[in-house]
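Data availability (excerpt). The following record was deposited with the supplementary files.
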Amino acid sequence: MSNMPFALTIAGFDGSGGAGILADIKVFEAFGVYGQAVCTAMTVQNERSFSAPGWVPWEQIQRQLETLREVRTFRFIKIGLVENAEVLAKIVTWVRKNNPEAYLIWDPIMSASAGYRFFEEDNADAFFPIFAQMNLITPNQFEFAYLGLGVADSRDEVAIGTQVSILLKGGHAQGETATDVLWTHGERLKYASPRVPGEGKHGTGCTLSSAILANLALGKSLPEACQIAKEYMDRFLKGGEGLLGRVR
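Predicted structure:
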């Protein structure tokens, strides 16, 4: 295992295995990356319903981070579900203090696929100051608009310039083609694929961001990692049972 790259997910626990840290670890493993995890929420849910977020206090999140750091310093880190901007800021500050060179992805989970909403309507501005410390943000259409990153329908520009890369996911858009748009270092790249019919899968955002992180850990460039992750997602959406995706 000494030659295997490591990645860390800081996210919620979903007992269905479709989203959160269980899903992230499965994706890391699929790409040959050893995944470790810090839990931010002990959610009560399955792939069809969500009952309670079960937030883990920051003190416990910090203890998990510090215990893992006793053994290794992670170069590739993904953040998923967080209670609010305050907790996110504490996590990001801790990461940057202890490992300034880490590649940091945030998948901004605004609501559960079953409909439970996590972030308050009037609290979006609290997230904005944290963005500069991240490398990549992967919002869907609704999260993109909520966070004030730009106008999702135009896809012409983003509000925070080139200080952080943004991958706008196209799964919630209309049309026969699902197109993700990546803004990075002043470039705009598109990743398109035929839309998979059906009601979709649970945990697609978690799966995509983890696939990107895993490929970055394997030495791929960000545009290449996004392309590989997009192809992986196409197979994920076509596989599995019901709302639970699977790559065979």
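Summary of structural features: The mean pLDDT is 88.
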